Amino acid sequence: MTAPLTGFSRLAPPRSWLRAHPTAFDAGLAAAVLVCMVVASFADPHGPHGPTFGTRTPELRSLLLMVAAAGALVFRRSRPVSVLAVTGAVSVAELVAGDPPAPVAMSAVIALYTVASRTDRPTTWRVGLPTMTVLTGSAMLFGSAPWYSQENLGIFAWTGMAAAAGDAVRSRRAFVDAIRERAERAERTRDEEARRRVAEERLRIARDLHDVVAHHIALVNVQAGVAAHVMDKRPDQAKEALSHVREASRSALNELRVTVGLLRQSGDPEAPTEPAPGLAVLDPLLDGFRRAGLPVELARTDQDTELPAAVDLAAYRIVQEALTNVRKHAGAAAKAEVSVVRVGRTVEVTVLDDGCPAGAAQVGPEGTGADGAPAGGHGLIGMRERVTALGGTLTAGPRYGGGFRVQAILPVQARAEGDEDV
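Structure (tokenized):
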């Protein structure tokens, strides 16, 4: 059932049509002003008992001047100052020649309002004051009534009110436009901020996925190779290697489930609530590498340090990624050392390996060459992005005498979101 239209609802279609056709509105206004001027010209303000209607008839000259003044109002939007000049001149002509004059000045009042509402305040002062002075002065000097008559003072009052009303309308329109522009700017800013946050979250998830997949798949690949190699001669060792494969794959699936859970919609089932990896579970991570055949030594002086979640996760991922690259690129006889040291307001995470001997061709993390230049891959790039996002620094390159070194210096307090480097 359709709800009944209210008064404002009924006026909405005509108002929209008039707003879309301003010339039609101005033509209707000009016709209405002409009718008012003609009707008022039949009134005699100096009757025996006050103003009387129908006791006089306007002259042909006055009718022609009223038609000319009303016709000029049709163009009041496109040429407001010119229309005011025309209506003002016609009004002065009637005030000088008519006795009593017809109310042609009504058109000048409308034109002055239009100038004040569609231009600026200085223009209103420059045009309005001369118009008020000329019209009022003409009525006082050339009219038969005393200069202080209410008809003369009425011209001054009406022109002044027209200028003030037009200026008020212009100020309100400018105020509304400013509010609308600020609202649109704020909406654009919110959209840009939302897109920026989405891009940052997408990059963070991509880094997590890369770290998880690269680490666990590398371990699975190593253990599967061991199982295939010893399957016939030492089945017990092959069984142990396959057990490590199953454990690494299960861990990879769990971490992938947690990461992908961030992409779920609000109505999807809840994602797992296990805590994100951090330095608290660094020992199990190193045990996994040791079982894969990579000897790893650990030195820590940060046991009493509470790190923000972002810093804790970044430190864990850096160790994970660096050891994964050692296992993949440093050779079967390589050894690694991991140190986590609290230094002032920072935590230094360092991963060293002895890798290839000095002078031999060595490949660093993700295919980094012996000169430290990246030769492809995303591991080193991902580590650098993590550290930079937190306000820290990352250095990676070959060691003197052979091997590779990755060091990240992370702030104990993570940089707040939205902070930018100046």
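Strands lie at 43-44, 52-53, 296-300, 336-343, 346-357, 393-398, 402-411. Residues 265-269, 357-376, 416-422 have pLDDT under 50 and may be disordered.
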